[in-house]
Design goal:
The protein is of the alpha/beta class. It has two domains: 6-174, Rossmann fold; 190-389, Phosphoglycerate kinase, N-terminal domain (Rossmann fold, 3-Layer(aba) Sandwich), CATH 3.40.50.1260. The protein has helices at 9-13, 40-54, 82-89, 101-110, 126-129, 133-140, 174-188, 207-213, 224-233, 248-261, 303-314, 335-349, 360-369, 383-389, 395-398; strands at residues 20-24, 31-32, 35-36, 58-62, 94-96, 116-119, 145-148, 170-172, 194-198, 219-222, 264-266, 270-274, 285-288, 297-301, 318-322, 354-358, 377-379. It has a six-stranded parallel beta sheet with strand order 5-6-4-1-7-8, with helices on both faces. Helix 8 links the parallel strand 9 and strand 10 (219-222). Helix 2 (40-54) packs across helix 3, helix 9 packs across helix 10 (248-261) and helix 11 (303-314) runs parallel beside helix 12. The longest helix has 15 residues, at 40-54. 48% of the residues are buried.
Length: 402
């Protein structure tokens, strides 16, 4: 995949001093009592913002917040986020309550070279989600170039994620660049053998992911409640475990497709079970998958299967991970996820494994295991990461390709 980055600005536009940059970022951050509760997404886009500002560009930040459905809503204004952005950047920024028209033009005129402006929530206008060409053109009127640094919104064909790239010179920001390079290394042009860990509660939410991966990887490790559906498809009685019995035929079809593609699907053969989902419950035990009782539920992968999966990773060069192996939120059902994550981290540290992970539960699980910083790349994107794993083209990324 070839895409334009900030490194191409000089040859394309020359000196950017005084030029106006529209920079799409993700500021859809959690708030608590009027303050930003988690500034991870702000810190991710800080390098791009400061690089452009330090080069003398006027930087205009575009972002959405919540789902106002094309209407202005005082509870979803980005002015709430302004203080958190200033804290991370270490600079004052101007809040601009409009995206187009004389108010926006006047505010941009006030900004000096190297100054930063935060424009109002893009989703306050219906033209944003409709990807209205006239709306995108109106936003672009006051700008010289466009930078997308919000991979997490790249699966949306909106005016601020795709439309602007059609009317302005368009570039990937540093966070977007890092994400795309990591994803290309994981599934675009990976070093084989490739393993994928896919976990989560339901097969139905990740059918497209599984369908795509069996043709892309050599080892597919299925965990979480999803594994129960595949075990049931193989005739295993999973007791009262979470299981989508109506999808057992689909699971069998995926396993058949994997066989033809040369992909080995790994399912647990020993499991941790309990009569209820609670911390260290009475009746907690480890057993073979064929010994699950009618009143028991599978809540994690067992130690023997976890060790076998670690051995699989040791034979691989690339790993992509989405979803936990068990109900990691409550001990001791985090054991398999933590153990395999630490194995992957150690292999990456040894230089033998490129490891890319993404998705909200996955990030939480890796943080819980204390190894998020030891993976090659951890994506905080949710829907965009999932659609990439499904093999779908992301409009916001396609718009940046050279």
């Amino acid at each position: 995949m070839t895409f334009r980055t900030l490194d191409d600005l000089g040859s394309d536009l020359g000196d950017v001093t005084g030029k106006v940059a529209l920079v799409r970022v993700d500021l859809n951050v959690p708030m608590r009592e009027g303050s930003v509760a988690d500034d991870t997404r702000i810190r991710a886009v800080m390098p791009t913002i400061l690089e452009l500002a330090d080069a003398g560009a006027k930087v205009l930040l575009l972002a959405h917040y919540g789902r106002p459905k094309g209407q202005k809503n005082s509870t979803m204004t980005l002015s709430w986020v302004q203080g958190g952005v200033e804290d991370v950047l270490g600079r004052e920024i101007m809040f601009i309550p409009e995206l187009t028209g004389p108010v926006a033009a006047q505010a941009i005129g006030i900004l000096g070279n190297g100054d930063i402006g935060l424009m109002e929530n893009t989703r306050f206008w219906p033209g944003e989600e409709a990807n209205d060409a006239d709306f995108a053109a109106a936003i672009a009127e006051n700008a010289d170039f466009y930078v997308n640094d919000a991979f997490s919104a790249a699966h949306r064909a909106h005016a601020s994620t795709e439309g602007l790239a059609k009317v302005l010179p368009a570039y990937a920001g540093r966070a977007m660049e890092a994400e795309l390079k990591a994803l290309d290394a994981a599934l675009g042009n990976p070093e084989a053998p490739v393993a994928a860990v896919v976990g989560g509660a339901k097969v139905s939410t990740k059918l497209d992911v599984l369908e795509n991966l069996v043709g892309q990887v050599q080892h597919l490790i299925i965990g979480g409640g999803m594994a129960n559906t595949f075990l049931a498809a193989r005739g295993v009685d999973v007791g009262k475990s979470l299981c989508e019995n109506d999808l057992t035929e689909t699971a069998n079809a995926i396993m058949d497709k994997a066989d033809h593609a040369g992909c080995t699907i790994h399912l647990p053969y020993d499991v941790v079970v309990a009569p209820e989902f609670a911390a260290n419950p009475a009746g907690l035990r480890t057993c073979n998958v064929h010994e699950v009782g009618a009143n028991e539920m599978i809540l994690d992968i067992g130690p023997q299967a976890t060790e076998a999966l670690a051995d699989v990773l040791k034979t691989c060069r690339t790993l992509v991970w989405n979803g936990p192996l068990g109900a990691f939120e409550i001990e001791p059902f985090d054991t398999a996820t933590v153990a395999l994550a630490r194995t992957a981290a150690a292999l990456k540290q040894d230089g033998s494994l490129t490891s890319v992970a993404g998705g909200g539960d996955t990030v939480a699980a890796l943080n819980h295991a204390g190894v998020a910083d030891d993976f090659s790349y951890v994506s905080t994107a949710g829907g965009a990461f999932l659609e990439w794993m499904e093999g779908k083209e992301l409009p916001g990324v396609a718009a940046l390709t050279a």
